[in-house]
Amino acid sequence: MSLDDLYMGLDVGSATVKVVGVDSEARMVGIPVYLRYDAFSTHAEAVAHALRAYLDSVSGKVAGVGVTGSGRKLIGSQIGADVIQTEIFAHAAGVMHLVRTGAVRDENGESLSHVRSVIEIGGQDSKYIVLDEEGLPIHFSMNTICSAGTGEFLKQLADEANVPMEDFGRLALQSRHPANIDATCTVFSKRDFRHLTQKGVHLADRLMGVCEALVRNYIKTVVRGYPLQQPIVFQGGVAFNPAVRRAFEKIAKTRLVITPHNGVVGALGMAVAALETMKGAHGGTRFRTDYLERQPKTRLRYCHGCQNACELVQILGEGDGEASVTATLGGRCDGCHNPRHVHEQPLQNHALQVPVVREKTKTQPIRLWQRSVRSSVGYYFAGLDGGSRGTKFALIRSGETGVEIVTSGSVDTCGDAVNACRQALRRLKEALPPKANLAGIGTTGSAGELFRDMITTRRQETADVYTTEILAHYAWASHWLPEVATVIDIGGNDSKLIAVRGEGLSFAMNDKCAAGTGAFLEAVARRFGVSIDEYAELALQSSHPAHIAGRCAVFGESDVIHKARMGFTTPDLLMGVAFAVCRTYLSDIGRGMLRVPIVAQGGVFLNRAVQRAFRETLHLGEREFVVSKHTHDVLCAGALGAALISRGRWEQGDDSHFKGFEHVLTTEYRTVSVACTHRTCHRRCDGLAVLVENGQPIAAYKAIDCPEGFFSGMLVHPKQRSHITRLLATGQGEVG
Fold first, then answer.
1. Lowest-confidence range among 358-362, 424-428, 574-578?
2. 486-632 homologous superfamily
3. Which CATH superfamily is domain 6-101+266-294 in?
4. What is the Cα Rg of the chain in Å?
């Protein structure tokens, strides 16, 4: 090998850095490097280590360098790259080079002559690339700001299971019955994983369920209905996991070919691009041979040019004995290049512009039930709010001028709504005075229908009424603050906004992403070893809240870790997360006009740091952005609202058909998952749920627009009951 024939390619990703080299004949030389950033204080340090490791494995003088990946501009500028290209170009170039050299082989060992599709999944991003006959990209799509379809998804779940990443695939392949795990959000998947662990589901089934969840998310959010054209190659760090490959072939019903060197194909593509660009070029490479020793300095600055409030990395050079800015990177627009916009401190979090109508209007509470025909004074009503994280309960006594809260609280759902319902009923039974009876029980929440069908014998003309979360939360907010114009509710896994519009309500919800919910706060609190009760006390000590990436809870947590290494204080990080939750909520579902007074509900608002973040961001005081001083008004609003609505139905003349505490607490309940087929319907519906009481089906759920109405809740018709009984008898059901 001559001294001038080494061409390097770097792929500087969000979680790893890869380095590959080729000689003047495009043959791979040296030992490819695949390195995670985890063990290094900065990305620049990791890149320097990777470069040093690669150069130590090969002789020769660097004649050209190509760089790709999310860090390509910063690192490319620092090391003096000759070619800088997007990941799409790099991966296409890399895989086509492997095809041309006969290195890509199918399951029969035959060399592929061409490739039409590339599935690439890395640490924090994923791509789908379609190539034409010449190997040029003609279509591509990438993941959004969500981590659910990336390698970080696998890493988070591997950490949850205390399984090394190198063992993940081997263990998952032992699965016989893969578990069904939420595929929409990494944080929600971790919740499902914990619940399955508590239920005793085998580790292999849980791990394989994670792989299948990743694949479902990738197909839905990255492929997006575009045809998977054969032959398909699978590359990126996730391709090391054989269980993910099996999940792809099962769910997508297609064969995948794993490319050799699958973790470094993008870097290989850039090495080849550097060769094609620099071989025979005049002037030589721009590569800075002193990079490893010099390690150019950088500094963090902030752009105030617009609401993006971008974080900027400025590369510093030496000039006349003083540091000078040689490049500014990281801005989303050209405004970051205007020196007047660049500041040492970030744009204040509360500078976000949100339309708020501050003039209070005379808002009358919307009537949720008809006028009463009888008095409820002295009667007791209960409410149950079945959430994915916690099940809230409340018991009220109706009085002459209002209601008395006898008890309220929350029990952990832990993935078992049936057991949570019973625990809540026990607490209600203990609080109910001797010889007193319940006049009605209202239910709401994601498990509200299930609770109703467990506790009552009727679904209509009864005080045991199921109501939506929107009505339940508004009912309680308007009960203690009649002039409320907006309700903001943020819980452990979801969030909602309710706005009074004339004589009706409009609403928006988010239950697909954890970034704007309590789950994000809890994850960061665990990372710092801080209890959620201590969170606000620490966060409120902050003097300069950090600007945390809040569009994905997992990536946000990674941003917190990165900034902790940079020296940000714990209070500034915790307060920054509170502001991130606020920004995410307002950008996701609070984008419309907000009218005051605003009532804040949900466990997240027990955190005073979050209260501060919302008030500062919206420029509102305590009388405009109202958080009740009573915990039950904040935490148990849904259950209390359901109890109020039950009282309203009773006052209209509907009696309770409650089965009684003893019946519900001593009866055997279980849920069974079934697949439904019927001679009058051309569809097959999977994953439907049946509630079984003492061996008999009493309710069925989760079908969409079932033409026969078999899965619409309580089974009130013999035709419904006989069909569900037949499905259970044929052995199609799986106990949940």
1. 358-362
2. ATPase, nucleotide binding domain (3.30.420.40)
3. ATPase, nucleotide binding domain (3.30.420.40)
4. 30
CA dihedral 235, 238, 240, 245 (to 10 degrees): -80
Instruction: Return the pLDDT at 565.
Output: 62
For residue 584, with 0-12 CB atoms within 10 Å meaning exposed, 13-18 middle and 19 or more buried, which class applies? buried
Residue 632: how many other CB atoms lie within 10 Å: 18
The mean per-residue pLDDT over the stretch 544-572 comes to: 74
Class of domain 380-483+638-664: alpha beta
Q: What CA dihedral angle connects 215, 142, 68 and 120, to 10 degrees?
A: 20
Among residues of the chain, what percentage have pLDDT more than 70?
Answer: 88
For residues 647 and 439, give the distance between their C-alpha atoms in angstroms, rounded to a whole number: 8
Q: How far apart are alpha carbons 29 and 374 in whole angstroms?
A: 88
Structure tokens at 115: 């490739």
- Give, in order, the Cα–Cα distances in Å from 406 to each of 175, 378, 617: 49, 12, 36
E-strand spans in 43-116? 62-68, 83-84
pLDDT in tens, 259-279: 899 889 999 999 999 999 998
Report in angstroms the alpha-carbon separations of 184 from 14, 20, 553: 21, 34, 12
Do residues 129 and 94 touch, judged by C-beta distance below 8 A? Answer: no
Secondary structure of residue 424 in the 3-state scheme: helix
* Element spanning 22, H or E: strand 16-22
Tokens of 479: 């009960």
Distance of alpha carbon 314 from alpha carbon 341, whole angstroms? 13
Alpha-carbon gap, residue 296 to 294, rounded angstroms: 6
Q: In terms of Cα–Cα distance, which of 80, 34, 84 is closest to 57?
A: 34
Cα separation, 423 vs 413, in Å, equals: 9
Query: Which letter does DSSP use for residue 446 in this model?
Result: T
C-alpha to C-alpha distance for 178 and 145, rounded to whole angstroms:
27
- Kindly provide the b/e burial profile for residues 592-627, where b requires at least 16 CB atoms within 10 angstroms of the residue's own CB: eebbbbbbbbbbbbbbebbbbbbbbbbebeeebbbb
Nearest to 417 by CA among 439, 444, 390: 390
Domain ranges for the chain: 6-101+266-294, 117-259, 298-347, 380-483+638-664, 486-632, 668-735
Cα torsion through 474, 475, 481, 486, rounded to 10: 10
Question: What pTM does this model have?
Answer: 0.72
Do residues 696 and 670 lie in contact, with contact meaning Cβ atoms separated by under 8 Å? no
Closest among 705, 340, 365 to 502, alpha carbons compared: 365
Do residues 1 and 29 lie in contact, with contact meaning Cβ atoms separated by under 8 Å?
yes
Q: Same fold for the domain at 117-259 and the one at 486-632?
A: yes
Using an 8 Å Cβ cutoff, are 268 and 28 in contact? Answer: yes
Count of beta carbons in the 10 Å neighbourhood of residue 430: 10
Q: Do β-strands 232-235 and 117-121 pair in parallel, antiparallel, or remain unpaired?
A: parallel
As given in the structure block, the two tokens for residue 371 are 């006028």
The domain made up of 117-259 is a member of CATH 3.40.930.10: no
Q: Are residues 275 and 7 in contact, defined by beta-carbon separation less than 8 angstroms?
A: yes
Overall average pLDDT of the 612-628 stretch: 93
| CA pair distance 516, 509, nearest whole angstrom | 11
Q: Which residue has the tokens 């006052």?
A: 651
Distances from the Cα of 221 to the Cαs of 224, 240, 555, in angstroms? Answer: 6, 22, 17
Angle at 187 between CA 182 and CA 190, to 5 degrees: 65
3-state secondary structure of 332: coil
